[in-house]
Sequence to fold (422 residues):
Amino acid sequence: MKSHSLSAINWAKRVLLTLAFSLILTPGLLPAEQPDRKPVVLTERARKLHQECLVIDGHNDLPWAMRQKAASSFKQADISQPQPKFHTDIPRLRKGNVGAQFWSAYVPSETRLERRAAHNTLEQIDLIHRMIKRYPETFEMASTADDIERIHKSGKIASMIGVEGGHSIENSLSLLRVFYGLGVRYMTLTHSDSLDWADSATDDAKNKGLSPFGEEVVLTMNRLGMLVDISHVSPETMDDVLRVSKAPIIASHSSARAIADHARNVPDDILLKIKQNGGVVMVNYFSGFVVPESARQMTEMFNVRRELKQKYPKESEFNREYNRWKSSHKMKPGTIHDVVDHIDHIAKVAGVEHVGIGSDFDGVSSLPKQLEDVATYPLITQALLDRGYTDQQIKQIMGQNLMRVLREAEKVAKQLQQQPAE
Fold:
């Protein structure tokens, strides 16, 4: 009887400790409260708060979708009008109250094998500039954090460019500098394949992180004021970047590996180092990265893509076989709550100052319910309110955290530019 009583007491102690730990870590969420998994209902309070936010999305693949689905022509797909085949168009951007957007200049990593990576990336950068010029009442190119604030106050969407994959610079620091001059303000160090100088999360390691040239890439980006993006890279590469970088880094479209165990997500030990670095992880919406069961199903996605690319070099044949594979590997789309779980976890581990939004719209095949397009950002605000986040914390997540990182990167660049160039 005595041993049973002691067991009960010890059990109760463990429960109380767990609850206390949860209370300390969770922003605004009481231990007795569990997130409601029912559909999120937008309230007037959330709508008003969302309008007060500077909403910055770290990653949107509309330029690649335009290339694939509309021959890079805004005549074929006029985004000032509803475009159901895309996740993004101007009416829905306005409905979502997007204040600033990083547009992805993505080209497949296989283009490096043909020495076409830089050429194709320049075409994507050109497409983004053409989009901004075609819709001047909606978009304006931003170069700095101050530009973002000014453009947002004018009622336009501040636009920056992110190059998705270091293969685009073809091992040339000169090309990196050219990209910066064309408006690129971050570069994702790898995409799906490891490079000569940096390892991908979804390929075999070549360098056990960064090579000496990879370190030079990071330091050059620091000197330029270009954000270093660790989405897609291996944990060893993340570790090296955080050791080398003199400025805060970003993960432009990644989520938490502790919630969904996929190599594309950020482990907790790296989250703690990002906190020390001052960076921000911008949470991805892709079902295959945020829904635990779907992440398990998608673990082989990049390997399958690579194998099929080698087996079927013709794009039409590759697309046929890859679509066949995807049709036999249906994943659960999940819901908005799965995405907010990742925001919650990163806020608990790294702090609410180190989390943001990086949807990956128009670059993914499956999205959670209630996050189907760029009109849905207000529902994230509502879901965060429902979990007990304060107005200020939500404003940080929606954009202020990224603005802080941008300003610090600009400050570091000015300091480095005062030193003699190597």
In short: Strands lie at 55-60, 98-105, 139-141, 157-164, 184-188, 227-229, 250-251, 280-283, 355-357. The chain has 17 helices and nine strands. The longest helix spans residues 391-417. Residues 64 and 124 are 7 Å apart (CA to CA).
